[in-house]
Every structure is written in C-alpha cells, then in structure tokens.
C-alpha cells in the first residue's frame, strides 16, 4: 500500500531516504528550509575553483559508497595518494608514519618508540575488533601503550580518521573500524567538490517521483503531519527527520538522545600558483589541524591554480581564529598570500551532528517518525548519514499507517 512520507531536510541523507521510499512506491515530499538542497555537503564555484564547506573525503568501502552506488549517484573522483604526507611539530616537518617504511624513517618518534608504534599499529590493523574495549577512544589508546610519544601519534592518526580531537567522546571500536577502512580501501576526493554528488542525488529523487520543496521550514512534527512556519499542515503516514537530533528535539520529538557535535574551523584558499607542490598533506602534532591540497588529486581548480584547505579541530565551546590558520599556511606554503584568488573561512563548522559514541538509533518516541543523518544510527560521518538514511527509509516504508497523532504509539529509542 502506498504511503505518504514526508522527509524534513534536503541534504544527502534526506534525498537518499526520499529516493529509497519513492522507489518502493510511496508518495514522498522533501521539505528543505534553504533555497537549495545539499545542506552542509553543498559546494559552490568561484573563478573555476570548487569550494566545499571544509575539507571532505568519501571513504571507500563503507555504507556511503554502497548507498550512492545503489542510487546510481556515485560521483567521479580520485583515490587520495599516501605519499608526500607530513607531520608538523614546532614549525618542522617530518614524514607522517603511514606505513612501516615511513615509521622507520620519520623523525616524529625517538628510536625506542618506533618498535612500540609498529606493534600497536599492527594490532590496530589485524586484531579482531571485538578484542578492543567498547570504551572511549582516549582510554583505549592509553591501554594500548604507556609510551607518551606513541600515544601522541595515535591521537593524531585517529583525529584524521574521525575529524575530532575529543577522543573521550568517540567509541574506540568505531574509530578503529574507520581507520581500517581508510587504510585498506582509501578515500576519494571528488571532482568538482561535493556539489555534483548533491545534484545527482536530487536528480535521482526527482526521477523517482519525489516532490522537493525548498524554502519550506518545519515548525513542528506530529504523528500525522508536519506543520510549517507559514502555518501549512502537511499530512503523512510516516516522517523522516533528516536533520540533527538537536533540531528534531526542537520540533517536539521525544526519545532523541543528547548529542555533542563535531566542530572545526575551516579555511579554504584558492591560489593562482601553489608555492610548495610537494607539501600536499600535513597534520599537526602540537596544534590539532590538518592541511590538504585536494586539487592536486581531484578536479577542483583551473589549470595552474590550487585549492588549499586547512581545518583545526575544535572542542565544545571553542571557536577558531582565522589568523591561527593563516599563520600555519605561512609556514607550509610560504608566499601563498601573493597568489590569493578567493578565500572562505568558517570559524565554527559542524562536521557531524554527533561524535560516534555507539548505541545511536534512528528511532524516536513516535513509532512512525525516524531520524537520518550523521547524528543518527551507528556509523560515523558521511557513512553514518547515508546508512541511517537507508535504514530510516526501510522503516518508514513498512510502518503502520496513521491517520492521526493519537493512533501513533509512543516509542522510546
């Protein structure tokens, strides 16, 4: 039986969930408060440069790639190389230990620590995931070694994989699984940024029969309808909230757990010339940042130009300073200021709506209302966004129809 399904939020998770539901034969409406779909994944073009909202990469072999291929929306991109990767400490660069060869040659660790690091990295790669404690990542790292230098290196490596320095808020098993995925399958940098992927998802949704309404802001969600700020009531049999859990709670939805967003300050700079082409990927040991020139790999800049990207991981309540990131760029790409075409600074960018702590659910207190996005479900980052979208779509498509809020059973996630 065909159901009316409303999706609140027109980012990748909302568009993916809507497409799954529509392909299953349901009548689907997407409500997006902005004038364009895409959410945080939307990108824009300036003078031939493709600007994402901060540095972004698509992990190969995870749920996100699976969903994109199922929906025929897999974007073009290039696998990121692992060479020319450096660790920055006290203004000096040394090889980033991404394998046993670079581990042997790096100056990031004293000689006595290298064997310890090799043993720990081997265990992280090969030991059964269940052998690691289902505990916060910080305590897991402390249990792996007493060597302070190795611990510092592990925190840097895991920050790259999780986009956060707040390792007390991250599930160790989920972080290790993410690290393994990156090491074994690699990550993709997308041609044209993430905008073409958002466009493809929108096109697949429309082709499946989804109605996409932009400039439509939800004010409240009940069991049988969504009420817009303008007063319109949109009836539904099921609803998918492709918005952060905090936003869902603000719409009156119960059964949503407390979240702590992953935050970063992001500086992207388009330059007409790249001063130091070999310094493609640099991570900070003393300062929690990473720097990347994705345009050396993916098609994101016009011929001769380059797009520099640097992010600083933030803790709760912190806000980034542009001058801090510019000073690091001065050290990594001296002379970049003479070639600036355009710059974009985001002092407090939401990377994900929650840290991957484990135990999250797409269910809410209403039996026919589900969540989707990177703050819902049990995966992390973009994998979490699209995996939860697929799960929420499956549940919404099979839920019992409701004709009014009173007939919808309350259910706590």
- Uncertain runs are 403-413
CATH homologous superfamily assignment of the largest domain: FAD/NAD(P)-binding domain
CA radius of gyration: 22 Å
Largest sheet, in brief, is:
7 strands, mixed
State the distance separating the first and last CA atoms: 26 Å
What is the average per-residue confidence, as pLDDT, rounded to a whole number? 92
Number of domains: 3
Looking at CATH, which topology of the largest domain would you report?
Answer: FAD/NAD(P)-binding domain
Count of extended strands: 20
The main sheet orders its strands as 8-7-16-17-18-15-19
* Overall shape: globular
- The amount of beta strand, in percent, is 15-25%
CATH-level-2 architecture of the largest domain: 3-Layer(bba) Sandwich
Question: Can you describe this structure?
Answer:
The protein has eleven helices and 20 strands. The protein is an alpha/beta fold and 413 residues long. A hairpin with a 3-residue loop joins strand 11 and strand 12 (225-228). The protein folds into three domains: 4-42 and 194-259 and 356-407, FAD/NAD(P)-binding domain (3-Layer(bba) Sandwich); 95-185; 261-352, Alpha-Beta Plaits (2-Layer Sandwich). The strands form five sheets. Strands 8-7-16-17-18-15-19 form a seven-stranded mixed beta sheet, with helices on both faces. A five-stranded parallel beta sheet has the order 10-2-1-14-20, covered by helices on one side. A three-stranded antiparallel beta sheet has the order 5-9-6. 31% of the residues lie in helices and 23% in strands. The protein has helices at 12-23, 63-70, 100-105, 111-126, 137-144, 148-162, 172-185, 195-207, 245-250, 322-332, 381-398, and strands at 4-8, 27-32, 44-46, 49-51, 58-59, 77-79, 85-89, 92-95, 187-190, 211-214, 218-221, 225-228, 233-235, 238-241, 262-271, 281-284, 289-292, 306-314, 340-352, 369-371. Helix 1 (12-23) packs parallel to helix 8 (195-207), helix 2 crosses helix 11 and helix 6 packs across helix 7.
């Amino acid at each position: 039986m065909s159901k009316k399904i409303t999706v609140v939020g027109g980012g990748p998770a909302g568009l993916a969930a809507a497409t799954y539901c529509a392909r299953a034969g349901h009548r689907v409406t997407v409500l997006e408060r902005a004038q364009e779909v895409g959410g945080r994944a939307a990108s824009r073009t300036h003078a031939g440069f493709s600007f994402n909202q901060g540095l972004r990469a698509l992990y190969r072999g995870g749920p996100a790639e699976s969903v994109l291929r199922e929906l025929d929306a897999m974007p073009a991109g290039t696998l990121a190389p692992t060479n020319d990767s450096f660790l920055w400490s006290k203004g000096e660069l040394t090889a980033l230990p991404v394998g046993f060869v670079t581990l042997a040659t790096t100056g990031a660790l004293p000689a006595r620590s290298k064997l310890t690091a090799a043993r720990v990295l081997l265990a992280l790669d090969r030991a059964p995931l269940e052998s690691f404690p289902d505990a916060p990542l910080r305590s897991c790292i402390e249990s792996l070694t007493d060597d302070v230098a190795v611990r510092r290196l592990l925190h840097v490596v895991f920050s790259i994989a999780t986009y956060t320095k707040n390792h007390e808020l991250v599930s160790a098993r989920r972080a290790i699984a993410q690290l393994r995925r990156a090491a074994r399958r690699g990550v993709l940098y997308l041609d044209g940024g993430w905008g073409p992927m958002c466009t493809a998802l929108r096109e697949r949704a429309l082709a499946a029969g989804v109605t996409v309404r932009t400039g439509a802001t939800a004010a409240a969600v009940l069991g049988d309808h969504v009420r817009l700020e303008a007063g319109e009531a949109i009836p539904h049999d099921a609803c998918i909230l492709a918005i952060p859990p905090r936003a869902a709670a603000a719409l009156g939805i119960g059964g949503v757990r407390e979240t702590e967003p992953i935050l970063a300050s992001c500086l992207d700079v388009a330059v007409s010339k790249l001063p130091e082409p070999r310094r493609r990927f640099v991570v900070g040991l003393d300062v929690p940042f990473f720097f990347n020139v994705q345009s050396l790999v993916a098609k994101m800049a016009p011929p001769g130009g380059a797009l520099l990207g640097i992010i600083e991981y933030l803790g709760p309540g912190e806000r980034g300073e542009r001058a801090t990131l510019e000073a690091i760029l001065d050290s990594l790409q001296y002379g970049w200021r003479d070639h600036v075409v355009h710059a974009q600074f985001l002092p407090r960018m939401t990377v994900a709506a929650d840290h991957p702590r484990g135990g999250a659910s797409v269910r809410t207190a209403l039996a026919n209302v589900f969540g989707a996005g990177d703050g819902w479900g049990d995966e992390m980052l973009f994998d979490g966004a699209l995996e939860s979208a697929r799960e929420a779509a499956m549940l919404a498509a099979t839920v019992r129809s409701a004709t009014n809020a009173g007939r919808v059973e309350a259910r706590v996630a």
